[in-house]
Amino acid sequence: MSKDDLAEQLGYAQSLGMPVGQVLVASGFLTKQEMLAAIQAQSLLLSGKITQDAAIKIIRDIVDEGSSLQAALATAGVGPEVTQSQDRLGELLVASELLSEENLAEALIASAELSSPLGHSLVKMQIIRPDLVVAALTVQKQLRQREISYEEALGRLKSAMKFRQFYPAD
User: Fold this and answer.
1) pLDDT value, residue 168
2) Mean per-residue pLDDT pooled into runs of 10, the chain (170 residues)
3) Which of 90, 104, 134, 148 is the residue whose CA sits 20 to 30 A from 124?
4) Is residue 168 included in any domain, yes or no?
5) Could you give the CA distance from residue 32 to residue 19 in angstroms, rounded to a whole number?
């Protein structure tokens, strides 16, 4: 995509009041998977885990070369220890089988496009009920504060699912 293309898409996004990512996907400049990878690279950049140069290289490898996210990360010299985090909400929900990888990807894209927290997007998209998101956030906080182990966190989330209703994944 050229700078002129990007400027044009930014203009469309602004005039339509839509997130730039959504416009880029709708116009065919990026696939949803490429957008998700870009969002993940942005997250790593914002958390200080990678440099801006590494983020650019990762995104270029994915978009221009068709590399997978993991391959692009490896090419940029980013090891799995940088990208793996057991206390991220989405990863906890997937590991506890409350959320599919596909639903997580869709919710992450929506979160990034709307600049909203993941839990909000999961509820708004009717993937998970609000009370289950609250339970997951509580478990996440306990895990981050080392009050419970990772295994205990997963167990508590699975138990929460048994006692709470959640929306079926479409």
Assistant:
1) 43
2) 87 82 85 80 76 88 85 83 72 88 85 84 92 90 86 89 56
3) 148
4) no
5) 13
144 residue type, one letter: R
The distance in angstroms from the start CA to the end CA of the chain is 33
Place of tokens 């942005």: 42
Positive or negative torsion for Cα 29, 31, 35, 38: negative
In this structure, are 77 and 7 located in the same domain?
Answer: yes
Q: What is the pTM of this model?
A: 0.54
Please report the pLDDT score of residue 13 as a whole number. 82
Domain match, 8 and 76 both: yes
Smallest CA-to-CA distance from 152 within 84, 86, 81 is with 86
Angle at Cα 79 formed by Cα 117 and Cα 57, nearest 5°?
Answer: 75
97, two tokens = 């089988």
CB 94 within 8 A of CB 85: no
- Is the Cα torsion angle 119, 133, 85, 35 positive or negative in sign? negative
Please, are residues 75 and 61 in contact by the beta-carbon 8 Å criterion?
A: yes
